[in-house]
């Protein structure tokens, strides 16, 4: 059987090429996602400030509620801290030479012209923590007086100062003047400023807390051994060694690792689903082309089991070679995805990948499994035909579909349409995700009943083609009607490409537009003040004393982590939140409060969106439990509920509480509403004259949100681009296969008098029917969920987003279809008819 399978592959290389390409690309995509997942588990960036520390102890980087399993955890959104006193306990551990608590806080150099130096993130630290790098003095001495500061060499150069010079530094207040006592080596990822330990403790705004504790090991003590000893005495802290130390030093590294796990897991699972679908479609088409061969085998007494075994061995051989090459190519895919994610700002550009044989091997096994599953499904029918029916079955394509297949396909279509209605009742990201998934379910359902759908379409188009183009049109219509399965095989991947691209792109643009529209309606401020690294909490208080200012509302963008029970499992999610001054929102923000009073938002209180309050079954006066963005547990009293959750998220906290659990202790912006009788020019001039460098004053703010939604949008674009690229390869692959198998048909038409031009025109018309059907059905399939999504989010069924993208997707699909069928037709017509008619099928 193995010899027969190998001979079949050798003599039918063209037929198996389609399956080979589909498996190769699918395996490469899955292997690339596997590399990203492994990188999320054990990769990172080299540590800088803690290079000399054997162990670094920091706050817990994720929240895992009591009773939850290892998978039920969520990455913190803000930088957690640890008690400074913990350093004394760690110092008593055997093998510890020293344990140093490090303070870390925003500190920026202000130039003589009043501008804040840009560039890398600028952080201030206590000088005794410099030993953890270690930072080496190039010149000068360590800071000894409260007015001393040590700068790194790059920062000193850009500020134009040297040892003994004066420099203005802004932390959480107005800029203060310091004397440069020394200059140390620079770091690539950050700018460093060092103060005396006492002054650093004042400037950090967190008495008794530290960013991390660096541990220096005694000679001969291994970091892993030391970490194990320290882990036994700390409770709830993160103990790290090696590359893990960077997750404590840089919050974005810790977040990137979880993000890669999430992206690669969901993206890889979706890619695997699409790969199975594409491989199954390609194999079914390849096997369908061999009807005569299998009919002959059945007629000479081959059993159904032998037919299935032959197909399985053939598929395994092809999948094995394609899987090995695809697994190796996955490394290039992972590198390309990493670079793309870095280009859009989702992950740090210096984040390294973890390379091992495990992801390619796993992708190979998954590719083999998907191919064997697809081969089993495709081989069932050719293996079950009775020998007496074999030759007749081979002569004409079977038209009707089985009852089980029809029921399955239309059930999937109905299920997808039902899922598309969810956004009418459930707003937010969950509703958007369900809408996109509903589109995919509908497409899969239509693919299952594809021959029936294409049969309905061709019955309408065939007479029209015959009347307009006569001979070529009649032949095209007759071919489409007689070979609905072949037409469905060509339409399905093209339809999937169109529907998936449209649904994914326009669902994101519609969600973003809904949030922007609601924010614009909810924001009535006249000005917004913001800064490159945040706004000092003093600014809002200073604005209240500016003549002509009615209200000044500080805004802190943060996140919270919620925990809910779903049966026996625990669901942990990180959600965006806002910190607002409840007594200052009137006139600047309208949250759509429907119960309670937002003016009571102070102290240990919280306001929830109506949907979140209903989900938690809470009303004003009830206690709400969750976790702050830095992982600290919260137990707050609910004072109000509101309806504008797209603009403000599901949680609104008192601004002081939000600052307390925000790593920089800064505001993101301040919204200003002027008095009705105030002079706009005078108010604007007063705002710009505030003694806080770097402040930007802009008229009327339309969206008080950061770049997280935009980053998510670009992230989805990258994912969609990769999937659509894979589908495009599948489309071209399928169209070439369906056309190339018809060389004997073309030869017969030419021998009975049909001209080469008429055959070419026939194929152009068939290509238009194929592409047109895929475009129309794919558009309808995407438009229905999108219309329901927009109706639920924006009150209008018209999707939001540029029309140019739609025409670009449609134009690409049309061009791809016409080129694939046109080129394969040209190749098939090159042979002389008398030679082609004798070729084996």
Automatic annotation (TrEMBL):
Domain ABC3 transporter permease C-terminal as annotated: residue spans: 266-382, 719-830
Membrane-traversing stretches: 12-37, 258-285, 317-337, 357-378, 406-426, 438-466, 487-506, 713-736, 767-793, 805-829
Keyword entries, A-Z: Cell membrane, Membrane, Transmembrane, Transmembrane helix
Pfam families: FtsX
PANTHER family: INNER MEMBRANE PROTEIN, MEMBRANE COMPONENT OF PREDICTED ABC SUPERFAMILY METABOLITE UPTAKE TRANSPORTER
Subcellular localization, as worded in the UniProt entry: Cell membrane
Gene Ontology CC, one term: plasma membrane
Domain of life: Bacteria
Protein name: ABC transporter
Membrane topology designation: Multi-pass membrane protein
Lineage, highest ranks first: Bacteria, Bacillati, Actinomycetota, Actinomycetes, Pseudonocardiales
